[in-house]
Amino acid sequence: MKLKTKSWTLIILLSMVFSLVVSGTLSAIGIKADTTDPTYEKIEKSGVLTVGTSPDYAPYEFQTTENGKSVDVGMDINIAKKIAADMHVKLKIKNMDFDSLLVALQTGKVDMVLAGMNPSPARKKSVDFSNVYYTGGQSILVNTKDAGIYKDKNSFEHKKVAAQTGSLQYNLAKNQIKDSSVTGIEKGTDLILALQTNKVDGVVMETPTAEAFASNNKGIKVIKGGFDLSSADSSTAVALPQNSPMLKKHVNTTLATIKKEKLIPVYLKEAGSHLKSNTANTSMLHYWKFFAMGVGYTVFISIIAVFLGSILGTLLALMRLSANKLSNLVATAYIEFVRGTPLMVQLMFVYFGLGLFVNLPALTAGIIAVALNSAAYVAEVIRGGINSIDKGQTEASQSLGLSKSDQMRFVILPQALKNIWPALGNEFISLIKESSIVSIIGVTDLIYQLKIVQADTYRGVAPILVAMILYFILTFSLSKLLKFYEGKFNHA
């Protein structure tokens, strides 16, 4: 009973520590007001400007294929190139989900964000913004067959509407479309897919982006939004870390040059040409290299995570079965804590939270998070397998004079492995699918590549179907391999 109480005490303490670290992370985000500019100094020292974006928002930022490789293009990308050139540094683009961009900026993963971002009052509380470089209107996308039904926002009362999560458009829809059901969706391509599959009746989107989607998809049409923008700033600016005066000065100087030389129309025209080239060949076969790369990363992440997770899981299982109360307590707390929190939260914490102290690459952070998560489940599977072995086996090995470590190594674990192999195999298969979560921090796994192909081709369902087939091939092949070895165990 005391051990159980201590276990819960440690779990609560670990939760408190986790909260404190997160709080510390958020506190560290707001660099104390100072005359120095740490971000600018870091850029000067490294000679690299790291810009965060979410390449699913044409014509601001999206991706196209050049020489068989996917590259970021669009108005924002050209602006980023101009800023880097004026600062005489190299440009590095980091892609991730829109919702993760400000966290990445606050935790130093990126130096600035260019993603068609609106400098809203809520965002200004946590980050700074440059001068406005573009102002666009707000429109609504509908299916072409419904174009005669909807005229503006007032036509969507009691209807289903979608917009990008955390965006100005989402707030406009929520506040100005009466009695409507508003859904937030992260990716622009997923918004279009929701519209095309009749999950929603309309999609609120910034006019240039809405027109880009409509011009490349005959099945959807743009209508006027009719939103009251008097109390909402629909402009676009560069997001910057707080208290970065030197960096802000350089960015605003470049934006002033862009405005003076009237480069925005040039950038938009160039983005339009990329959009046309993207839709020249939208067959899935044309994008086989993207899917192949995604499969490669998915398999690589899964293999490394399985290896590390199995080692740590075995150690945790032995610790939990140990007579040592401290070892038992630590293992129990770890397992319960990991199993009690979502993998996505753990991934975000490893990448962004620990990133304040150790600058982990996205791929490394993804592997660590998946491995640590898997270890907790593997530990319980192995513990259950060890407990299933008859006590007579232990007594027999003791009578032979085997040490405790030899008993576990030569007698208990081999028999336990035979019993737990099916459950362990299920965990490995699940891990392949769960590893898809790493796409949110920009790891180019299969799900990430699926979204790229969707953004490039403006086709929603076909890339999903290809990804489903590829995941099935991976999991089915692994299932057959595991069954083969299961048969070997049964005949051993």
Automatic annotation (TrEMBL):
The name this protein goes by in its record: Amino acid ABC transporter, permease/substrate-binding protein
Protein keywords: Amino-acid transport, Cell membrane, Membrane, Signal, Transmembrane, Transmembrane helix, Transport
Domain ABC transmembrane type-1 stretches: 295-482
Record-annotated membrane-spanning stretches: 290-318, 349-372, 460-479
Species name: Pediococcus claussenii (strain ATCC BAA-344 / DSM 14800 / JCM 18046 / KCTC 3811 / LMG 21948 / P06)
SUPFAM superfamilies: MetI-like (SSF161098), Periplasmic binding protein-like II (SSF53850)
Compartmental location: Cell membrane
Family recorded in the similarity comment: Belongs to the binding-protein-dependent transport system permease family. HisMQ subfamily.
Domain of life: Bacteria
Membrane topology term: Multi-pass membrane protein
